[in-house]
Amino acid sequence: MGQRGRKQGSIGVKSKAKLLSIATDEFATNGFHETKISNIVKKAGVTQPTFYLYFHSKEAIFQELVSHFRTKLTDLTKESRLESGLDVNTLPGRIAVGLSAIFHFLNEDHQLTKIGFFISTEADDIKSQIADLIASNLVSEQKDGYFRKDIDMRIVADGLVGVIERLTVTSLFKGLKKPDELAREIVDLFLYGLQNQ
Amino acid sequence: MGQRGRKQGSIGVKSKAKLLSIATDEFATNGFHETKISNIVKKAGVTQPTFYLYFHSKEAIFQELVSHFRTKLTDLTKESRLESGLDVNTLPGRIAVGLSAIFHFLNEDHQLTKIGFFISTEADDIKSQIADLIASNLVSEQKDGYFRKDIDMRIVADGLVGVIERLTVTSLFKGLKKPDELAREIVDLFLYGLQNQ
Amino acid sequence: MGQRGRKQGSIGVKSKAKLLSIATDEFATNGFHETKISNIVKKAGVTQPTFYLYFHSKEAIFQELVSHFRTKLTDLTKESRLESGLDVNTLPGRIAVGLSAIFHFLNEDHQLTKIGFFISTEADDIKSQIADLIASNLVSEQKDGYFRKDIDMRIVADGLVGVIERLTVTSLFKGLKKPDELAREIVDLFLYGLQNQ
Amino acid sequence: MGQRGRKQGSIGVKSKAKLLSIATDEFATNGFHETKISNIVKKAGVTQPTFYLYFHSKEAIFQELVSHFRTKLTDLTKESRLESGLDVNTLPGRIAVGLSAIFHFLNEDHQLTKIGFFISTEADDIKSQIADLIASNLVSEQKDGYFRKDIDMRIVADGLVGVIERLTVTSLFKGLKKPDELAREIVDLFLYGLQNQ
DNA sequence: TATGAATGAGCTTTCATTCAT
DNA sequence: GATGAATGAAAGCTCATTCAT
């Protein structure tokens, strides 16, 4: 551990934050392997050993970013479960709120989202975890009579994660839609489908 | 004329095919950077210079795999456009056919699919291209009156690609659903939605 | 005046002593290069700059240990010279006394002995110095008629140092023999040899 | 392993031998840590990767040297055991022969001897192993009636190893004595002792 | 008497790639 | 069609040491 793990004054905290922020950019832009510590520290205006004052290794700083992403996202997903006894008319709006919160988070730091969703080796695992949470929410909501019963919620949950992931980059990141709009449109699609009514 | 301007006899063809096949496995399993040429040639039973007889570079062999994937997938997508004047009742089945063909292809070579969809830098680009094609199909099908008009087909197309991508790994690769089932369920979801009718 | 020209109060003295003691353990256990200042200070509960308050450098603290060892050992060796006019019958006992004192010292602090005898670059030099002193003792004792004249006392002295060094680790440190026993047995061997009389 | 372990032509063998020889010098002169691979390859006229073509690591090349030393020395020691039924008058000569062979080997490559006896971490272990072999020889020779029975052969063996080690550097390496002389003098000392007869 | 923060200098190791044969 | 041998270029990481406070 060396000096890592000792108390840090405000200067140290600032240095570490700067390194984290630059690392986020670099990892998101160039991927893990193409990101060089030498480059990060150069942009941060410190030397290589300083980097190792705050992070164990290249893997460690990357992991710190991924873990933060995962925690935030799973928390938001958990919070999106709907209570029972809701008026069916309010359903679309209520679902959209949860989804919108997720899109807000994903939109907050594009670079971090890229890392968590596409760059990290855990990306797949994270998406599965989110899908699990969503599936569990959907099943319980299905039991509450909010949704039709003849559909496999595992498929819906996985599909929803795919939709979120894809629209995040194609629509949200490009500024084509705002989180709330996107949430509303997805809810519309998933609730009512494409059929000509 | 093969790679690098040399004529290749059957031995050369065999070596090249072997290298390609092993490379597919390695890239899919370990990613681009963790895949070492030294490892590929060891498993293929040839030396490093032999590798360079068939491929310009590590990038080149990787690109060969990705391009193949992209071509096959875009072709299949193009073929899935529906002609006009269809009976609306046959619609779900007809859509499912196209989708099923795509899942069949994705299921054919898991490793190649992983490369094209998740490992390659172009993954995002490929998905966008597929989404473009699907969007164009959907819009024209929408004009044919097959779908409701008050929905943004860009969103639907991107979403569909996300659904395909995600369910490919979570369901198809794990053998939980067959291509046809998966196609049918997705069509069901996208046509009729989740609402309790 | 202490190290580096500063007066040292009792706290400083304690810190320095602690550093020295921990350094002894570390150097003896891990060797010079494997011993990290960062490790020493961590175990001592101080920071790196504090270390440099008491010692110029890693070399300096090491040197302090080695010098102490050397001084003590050479002093003991000098004291072991026998006066002339001794009764030949008391000879073995008298020699053993000197040798025993040396073993006592070597046994006092195993870690320090390891450093002085095996780890330091000067180890060889120290042993040569001891051998010189012993040789000079032996030659003068030889002139006093205590030993046979047809033997090269340089060889005997060097050999004796080798014996001391080796038996220190193989016998003394393992607690197999006490200093006095060891001294007596060595004297027996060196005086009378292995021959079947 | 990379390319290591493949068949090597005569050029490769030469490169490896050169690296080994230079490494021996460097390790013996500067110790393990002060020896830099960069220095070894510079002196060998090759680049760093070439080094790793032949050796796994710095540790590995060092180990190769130490193992060779250990094997040679233990073999020689085993061969020095005396058969039973010898004329007691030939004893000193016969013992000296074995000892002389050992000194010849130690004198052959001073640098390698330094590594095996003083630089390697295993040095102590090697000496113990040699002492074990010698002890076993001595005990069996003692049973054959070649030596007095009232002496602990463990002590003699360890002592002898110390004597060998020390005289190797102080006498042999400096050219003060030849292997045979040295062997003879040591035998004289160990058989008859210092006493004035 | 002590520390938080930082660094200069350097080391081992890796890998894609190539040349001569 | 294939190989033994070699390399250019760099990357991650470590450590003793110091400055400002």
3D structure, described in words:
The structure is a homotetramer of 197-residue chains. Chain A has 197 residues and is mainly α. In chain A, 74% of the residues lie in helices and 0% in strands. The first copy, chain A, contains nine helices and no strands. In chain A, helix 1 (10-34) packs antiparallel against helix 2 (37-44), helix 4 (58-79) runs parallel beside helix 7 and helix 5 crosses helix 9 (179-192). Chain A is elongated. The model of chain A has no long low-confidence stretch (mean pLDDT 91). Chains in contact: A-B, C-D. Chains A and B meet through helix 1, helix 7, helix 8 and helix 9 of A and helix 1, helix 7, helix 8 and helix 9 of B. Chains A, B, C, D: This is TetR/AcrR family transcriptional regulator. Chains A, B, C, D: Keywords: DNA-binding, Repressor.
SSE layout and pairings?
Four copies of one chain form a homotetramer.
Chain A: H1 10-34, H2 37-44, H3 48-54, H4 58-79, H5 91-108, H6 110-119, H7 123-143, H8 153-172, H9 179-192
Helix pairs in contact in A: 1-2, 1-6, 4-5, 4-6, 4-7, 5-9, 6-7, 7-8
Chain A binds a DNA duplex (21 and 21 nucleotides) through residues 2-3, 6-9, 11-12, 15, 36-38, 46-53, 57-58.
